[in-house]
Write a structure and sequence with these properties.
mainly alpha; 2 strands; two-stranded antiparallel sheet; 70% helix; 16 helices; single chain
C-alpha cells in the first residue's frame, strides 16, 4: 500500500488539520496543502454528489465507498474529530497562557512551509507571479479589515456559513477569523451556546452549500490552472503571516454566553516590532526556528516514505 494511502499517516494529517483551526490565521487547508493531500481532499469532498446519493439509496455501499474515496475521508475526518476533542484543547491552553510562544512556533512553521508549497509550482511565469501577489494581497487585506457590525438576518447568516466554510478549506484563511471580520462571530458563538436554530440552521445550510460549491470550484481551477492556483495559495499562506506574527496586541471585547462565562473576542490587532533585548524575544525566536525545523523534518520523512 502506498504511503499516501496509509491510514495512520492520513490520520495524523487529520490531527494536524483539526489542531490548526484553533490558531488564528492557520487553517486546516494550510496543513492539507503543506502535507500534500489538498487536491485529494478537495476531490473527495467534491465526489459527495448526486451520484453518491444514488449509490447510497440503491444499496451499492462498496461502490459508494470507492466513489467518495472513503478510506481517505475516514482517516482524515477521524483525525480531525479526535483533534478537536483532544489536541485542540491543548492549543487553546497554550494560546491562553503562552500565546506569543505558540504563535512564534507556528510562524516558523508557516514561514518555511511557504517554500515547500511554492516549490509545487512547476513553472514560474508572469501569470503565476501575479497570482502569488494577488493571493498575498487578499490575505493581508483580510487581516487588516475592520470587523463589520453584527447582522442576524437569515440571508447574511447563510452567507457567513458559505464564506466561513470556504475559508476553512482555503489555505491561509481562518474560518473563525472570517466570522469576526463579517461581524457575526459573537452571534454564532451565542447561538451554539443557546441552541438558537434560527441562527444555526441557515449557518449550517450555508456551510453545506459552500463546501460543495467551493470544492467543485477549487477542483475545476486546479484542473485548468494548477500552477496559478498553487501560486495564489502560496500567497494566501504568505499573507497569513500577518495574523500569526507573534509580536502583536489583540484588541478584544467581552461577550455574554447563555449558561457559560463571558468570552473575550478579538476585534483587531495592533502590530509591533520585537524587543531583541528581551529574553522572551530570544525564546520566541528559538521557537520560530523550531517551527521551521519541524516542517523540514516532516518534509524529509515524507520524502523517504
Amino acid at each position: 500500500m502506498a504511503s499516501s494511502d496509509n491510514f495512520i499517516s492520513l490520520f495524523l494529517k487529520g490531527l494536524a488539520m483539526g489542531a490548526a483551526n484553533v490558531i488564528p490565521g492557520v487553517s486546516g487547508g494550510t496543513v492539507a496543502l503543506i502535507t500534500g493531500i489538498y487536491q485529494r481532499l478537495i476531490n473527495a469532498i467534491k465526489s459527495c454528489d448526486h451520484n453518491a446519493i444514488k449509490l447510497f439509496f440503491t444499496g451499492k455501499f462498496k461502490a459508494l465507498w470507492q466513489h467518495i474515496d472513503g478510506h481517505f475521508l475516514a482517516a482524515i475526518f477521524a483525525g480531525v474529530a479526535i483533534s478537536i476533542l483532544s489536541l485542540a484543547r491543548l492549543f487553546e491552553y497554550l494560546l491562553e497562557h503562552y500565546e506569543r510562544y505558540t504563535m512564534a512556533f507556528f510562524f516558523g512553521l508557516i514561514l518555511l512551509s511557504i517554500y515547500y508549497v511554492g516549490k509545487q509550482v512547476t513553472r514560474w511565469a508572469p501569470s503565476t507571479v501575479i497570482a502569488l501577489l494577488a493571493g498575498t494581497a487578499v490575505a493581508v487585506a483580510t487581516a487588516l479589515l475592520a470587523p463589520a457590525s453584527e447582522n442576524p438576518a437569515t440571508w447574511y447568516v447563510f452567507l457567513c456559513g458559505v464564506v466561513a466554510i470556504s475559508s476553512m478549506i482555503l489555505p491561509g484563511l481562518s474560518g473563525s477569523f472570517i466570522l469576526i471580520i463579517m461581524g457575526n462571530y459573537a452571534l454564532v458563538l451565542g447561538a451554539i451556546s443557546s441552541f438558537d436554530f434560527s441562527i444555526l440552521l441557515p449557518l449550517a445550510i450555508g456551510c453545506g452549500v459552500g463546501l460543495i460549491v467551493f470544492s467543485h470550484f477549487i477542483a475545476w481551477i486546479f484542473k485548468h490552472y494548477e500552477d496559478q492556483t498553487l501560486a495564489a495559495m502560496t500567497g494566501f499562506v504568505l499573507g497569513s503571516l500577518v495574523i500569526i506574527w507573534p509580536w502583536k496586541t489583540a484588541i478584544t471585547r467581552s461577550i455574554e454566553r447563555v449558561g457559560k462565562p463571558a468570552k473575550e473576542v478579538v476585534e483587531k490587532y495592533v502590530w509591533s516590532l520585537p524587543d531583541f533585548a528581551s529574553g522572551e524575544t530570544l525564546i520566541a525566536c528559538g521557537l520560530i526556528v523550531a517551527g521551521a525545523a519541524a516542517v523540514a523534518i516532516m518534509e524529509r520523512v515524507a520524502g523517504k516514505g
